[in-house]
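Student: I would love a firmer grasp of how sequence relates to backbone shape in proteins. Thank you; the sequence and its tokens follow:
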Amino acid sequence: MVYRNIIGFILLSLFSINSHCQTASIVFNSENHFQVTINHIKQHNTYINNIQIKNLNGNHPYNIKINFKNDTISTQTNIYLIDNGLAHIYDISKKSIQLKKVVPAVSYPTAENQLIVNYTVNNNLPIDTNVNDTSQTDTTYVIPYTSYYKLEDYKGRIGCPFPIKDIEQAKLRSTILAENLEESKLEKIKEAILYMDSACILIKQTKELILLLNLKKHD
């Protein structure tokens, strides 16, 4: 399953993410210098082309506005952070804010010259002004992909468009079988996932990897 209940649940267990990691983060990359505004609050003063914003709430929507240096053009959209403990990585241009991948936060390496800030919110203006009514359809959510993996009977939010490919799953299996040290095995799996186009994984794919890990433990 490629959606939030899998990524926020199975992936975090598979890669042993510490329980103290209770917030989500967003990473924005661009060829242009920009400023980020979240929920109408400017997050930093300087113009940069790489920023990581920490201490946001997972399983939560945010309005993102990007202003570009020396340009009147701005880009704005609503995004949804899948779960806590995850880094949501976006590429931005003057035309779009595009989700590239979602990875465990502990395995995301800080880029050189990356600006790191904590999420700033105006405490006098509460972000959540409406009480959620689960009996009503969420008409504010728009699927962020023109094409995506259709999971039977699933009606929830979509965190990334496609699960990892069969050839990528085969590489993960080979990594587990080739490594003897538990620490090296997990580290190499995390590195492999980080550089994949998608960090989404199906239940059956996760189950296969977990069974291999358990098998190696009992050898």
Remarks:
- The longest strand covers residues 24-38.
- Helices lie at 4-14, 166-178, 182-194, 203-218.
